[in-house]
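Format notes (please read before filing issues)

Several people have asked whether sequences and structure tokens are stored in separate files. They are not. Every record keeps both together, in the order shown below: the sequence lines, then the token lines. Line labels are part of the format and must not be stripped during preprocessing.
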Amino acid sequence: KTIFDNVGYGLRLRKVSTADIKTQVTKVLEQLSLGHLGERYPHQLSGGQQQRVAIARALVYNPPVILLDEPLSNLDAKLREEARAWLRELIVRLQLSALCVTHDQGEAMAMSDRILLLNNGVIEQQGTPLEMYSDPKTLFAADFMGSNNQLKGNVTEVRDGIATLSGDGWKIAGVTRPGTTAGKPGVAMIRVERVRVAASAGDNRIAAKLITSMYIGDRFEHLFELENSRIRAYGETALNAGAAYFVDLPRDAIWVFPTA
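Then the structure lines:
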């Protein structure tokens, strides 16, 4: 079937008149910038265009809610970024109520007004994308919603909402999360983008050896070794592998969670 026939097929099953089918299908194809492709066949479309056809088949009914189950999973990385942008724009422009299931945290934050994070079928946390990213309530939520570093140690002090975590030759402080108790094991979590390479020692700075610097397009990603852990940081230039550097971990950017 052509793209036009694919989108209109469900309407035909519902005994909608030919004139109304033409009107509704033409409208939804135009909304998705597919109007010029109505007479083509699926194999003549790109992956992104095929995905738009799938959305059009759902929208042609004017549904009160649209359900999307991993809608971008069959697209490559570049197309996924483009598709999530136009899908978000479509939801806003048409004022759709959409429920989207995804395992991609970037996709969830980009497309949604509200996120429900599930852990084994149970809601772990819910909130706006900003709330989920900047104020995670649990270690699972913090780890899932970003690109992170974790350091495990012992909680030596908890005071005024700040927990101190110590390891072999290092000590850092961070914002305490529920359940964190002095004298118990804990884990510090910090987003990779909040880590910096410092010129000298200081509070919340750890000496670590650089394993490698990886160029990832718009920046370098530095990989440091600390005991049995790894610390990642972003920077504008490559660093010398094997050399020791001071890694700056801002106190207000660290969450200290109790270990399970």
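For reference, the curators noted about this record: The first strand starts at residue 66 and ends at 69. The first helix runs from residue 3 to 13.
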